[in-house]
Write the structure tokens for this entry.
Amino acid sequence: MAIFQNNLKRFMKNKLTLGISLIIPILFIIVAFSGSGDQRATVGVIDHDGTQLTKQMIQTMKGQADVVRVTDNNQRDQLINGKADMVLIIDKGFTSSLIAGQSKPLNSYHVSESNISSGVSAFISGYLQDIELMAKQSQGRQQVFYQALNRYNQNHLALRVRSADGQAAQKEKTLSSLGFVIYGCLIMMIALPSKLIVEDKEKKIFDRFFTTPLSLRSYNAQHILSYLLLANVMIFTMLAILAAGFHATFGPSIFNVYVVLLIFSVVAISIGVALSVAVNSTRQANALTWLITTPLAMLGGCFWPAKIMPSFMQKLADFTPTAWGVKALTKLVYGNGLNDVIIELTILAAFAVIFFLLASWRTRDIAH
């Protein structure tokens, strides 16, 4: 196990790579969890009815979300520019139809469904159900309806709009943090294998190894085992920080998250080993590491949700291991088990096999 032990010593000499790989996830974990978990939605309201009921509805909504004025002309821009999470349109005749017992749905628009917009929609839906019930009981009598509405508003407990899942904000923060853990794994597990193996070639150590009884298979196996040990240390460290320091939400089991991160690390190691046999110097290896890791992380959804990217980029992301790693972690954090991420894990394993085969074929060629 001379290669394995020697690599452990060499890891300690690569303090810059180790530091970057650990510091980047930790910094972004702190950023992700530094915000308040009680997010208020911003709702744009267009009131074409202008009745006592609609004014009271808007007033009630202000206790649950930030209400802003929008118009028919600028509602699209408000949504696209992020100035409103959703726009609610109250059509003319809404109140009279409601009191007459003819429910008239409200039109609402949002750019993309989110936990916050879902919470607002749930609140509005519940509020409408209550006033529809009051309208039915008033039997079309406007005065009776408004008396019931006033009593309702006085006694109704103000409920702050939250996600339908009370832990949704924590889950989003956990996922954001795990995305940067994946990025850290990419940097560490691609940079170190490519650099150390290339150093062996540059210093002719690679050639001298094969003048001894050491086989190519043993050489590769010891390298991979040393990187797996390092990956375990990193993953345990990151998960411990998330669990103990930030009370992150990992779904049914933190072990499931560990399994996904470990399998992803194997993929990253396979890429690093493949890269090591494709370059001729450590300078090339260092340059290509950053050219590979950052685009993979960006496409795979490590920095932001993949759904905000253009459709062609989302399709392109399906050809990256990072996307499948993030998909698996998303399912786990939102309550699924390992059985539910078999497809994602199988695809990650396929990526690892492909890159290891490429590295093995090229290394065998170099050795001979």
Notes: Residues 157-166, 364-368 have pLDDT under 50 and may be disordered.
